[in-house]
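Hi all, posting the design record for the shared folder.

TITLE: backbone redesign
STEP: 1 of 1
STRUCTURE INPUT:
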């Protein structure tokens, strides 16, 4: 109870806060139901839950019910085809993952509670409260056979027989429910992914008809060789070293974002003063385009920046940003044109677009052009935003070194991470530790509810915090400097 009550005190308000805010914050919880940039030409023709092929193709989603709980039934009625046509395959599978987890928990509850509540409750172990239903209340060891049987039915698997790979039929043969669900969902995923990628909409995408080759030898960085080696090649892009251009583009983007922020700040100040009815500062006829806000905003209140950070004199941020963009935009355009025409500074990476998805898959699966340490890793179906462009220039030796360093760091992290995890685990048995460690003798004098929180709730919270730090550390310390793959999908 000492663990259950705090969890209920936290979870119940959060659930009701979500149910309440969902009805108010449509821009957060239902943005696709009202945004004007999405097409809704069918919205006035079809009822919200009657889906035809035309309705499924539209971009807007039907408005859910505004009640606290009646929206759940509407979400359950949404067909899988509708979800697939309104989001990516990964997003749909993520939703399906939650569906399967919920189903597994429900079935597990039915299987375990039907047997173990009686077995544990009559175990004669002398426990009280909710502990009477726990494993520790069983005094007779022979009753543990019931726990083994339930675990075997729910979890384990002895043998599967796949009846048909085409239709994904699986015959359950001496297998637990969890393993059966995992296997059937795996077969379903394979068939769904193949069917989804072969649809005309996906097959026609440039990314699905393009393969990326890395570690390409210098002699092979030639379009004529590539067209002679592969069939049905439509276009070839050999990556080039564009560090100077990237620096200019980054500078241009930062200044553009700064100009946008300054314009928004100026508009916000002017709007507030306009609503308050303050007087104009200047004559609108004398204003140049884009500075209408100066009617209500004095020059001192305009967004400004320092020529030298912290110590330099202040200047007009908007005028400075516009003048800088006038110089940078032509430079960027000139360098882009120069890189398109030049054939120097080639990187060991090539993008090859094929006439069809079938030709791209056939080329990707061929082994004749692959050499140990060269022309790999390769990728297919990768969009521009999924390419880690700075990793295209990594050599074979650098990739091997990064792999060794990364694996060493992860191994050390695993070893040292066991220390705090072990200390947190010791909290669950702090009463026994108090008998052997005099410094912990005060634990025995704590009230029972407080002791229950220390041994039950606190270890779970600390373990969750420690586990949450692992991906953060790996992504910051390992993924960025040591990631050696050309895409973020590998």
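Okay, here is what came back for every position:
SEQUENCE:
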């Amino acid at each position: 109870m000492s663990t259950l009550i705090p969890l209920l005190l936290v979870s119940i308000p959060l659930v009701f806060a979500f149910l309440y805010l969902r009805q108010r914050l449509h821009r957060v919880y239902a943005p696709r139901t009202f945004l004007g940039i999405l097409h809704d030409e069918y919205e006035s023709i079809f009822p919200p839950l009657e889906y035809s092929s035309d309705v499924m193709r539209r971009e807007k989603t039907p408005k859910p019910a505004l009640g606290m709980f009646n929206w759940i039934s509407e979400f359950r009625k949404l067909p899988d085809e509708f979800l697939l046509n309104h989001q990516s395959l990964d997003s749909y599978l993520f939703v399906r993952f939650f569906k399967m987890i919920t189903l597994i928990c429900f079935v597990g509850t039915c299987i375990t509670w039907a047997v173990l509540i009686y077995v544990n409750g009559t175990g004669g172990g002398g426990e009280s409260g909710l502990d009477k239903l726990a494993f520790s209340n069983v005094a007779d060891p022979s009753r543990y056979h019931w726990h083994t049987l339930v675990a075997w039915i729910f979890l384990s698997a002895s043998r599967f027989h796949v009846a048909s790979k085409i239709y994904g039929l699986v015959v359950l043969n001496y297998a637990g429910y969890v393993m059966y669900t995992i296997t059937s969902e795996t077969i379903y995923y394979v068939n769904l992914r193949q069917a989804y990628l072969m649809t005309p909409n996906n097959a026609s995408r440039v990314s699905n008809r393009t393969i990326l080759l890395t570690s390409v030898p210098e002699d092979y960085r030639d379009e004529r060789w590539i067209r002679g080696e592969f069939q049905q090649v439509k276009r070839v892009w050999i990556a080039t070293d564009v560090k100077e251009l990237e620096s200019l583009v980054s500078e241009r983007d930062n200044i553009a974002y700064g100009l946008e922020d300054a314009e928004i700040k100026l508009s916000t100040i002017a709007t507030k003063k306009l609503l308050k009815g303050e007087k104009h500062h200047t004559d609108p006829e004398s204003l140049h385009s884009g500075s209408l806000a100066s009617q209500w905003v004095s020059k001192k209140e305009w967004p400004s920046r320092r020529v030298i950070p912290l110590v330099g004199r202040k200047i007009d941020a908007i005028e400075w940003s516009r003048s800088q963009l006038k110089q940078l935009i032509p430079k960027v355009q000139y360098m882009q044109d120069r890189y398109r025409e030049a054939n120097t500074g080639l990187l060991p990476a090539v993008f090859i677009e094929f006439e069809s998805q079938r030709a791209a898959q056939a080329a990707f699966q061929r082994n004749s052009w692959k050499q140990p340490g060269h022309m790999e890793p390769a990728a297919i179906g990768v969009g521009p935003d999924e390419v880690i462009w700075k990793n295209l220039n990594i050599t074979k030796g650098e990739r091997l070194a990064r792999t060794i360093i990364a694996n060493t760091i992860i191994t050390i992290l695993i070893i040292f991470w066991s220390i705090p995890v072990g200390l947190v685990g010791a909290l669950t048995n702090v009463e026994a530790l108090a008998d052997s460690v005099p410094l912990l003798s005060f634990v025995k004098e704590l009230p029972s509810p407080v002791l229950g929180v220390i041994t039950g709730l606190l270890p779970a919270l600390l373990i969750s915090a420690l586990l949450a730090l692992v991906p953060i550390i790996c992504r910051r310390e390992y993924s960025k400097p040591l990631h050696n793959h050309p895409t973020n999908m590998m």
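COMMENT: The chain has four domains: 4-197, 200-241+345-393, 265-339, 396-482.
Let me know if anyone wants the other runs.
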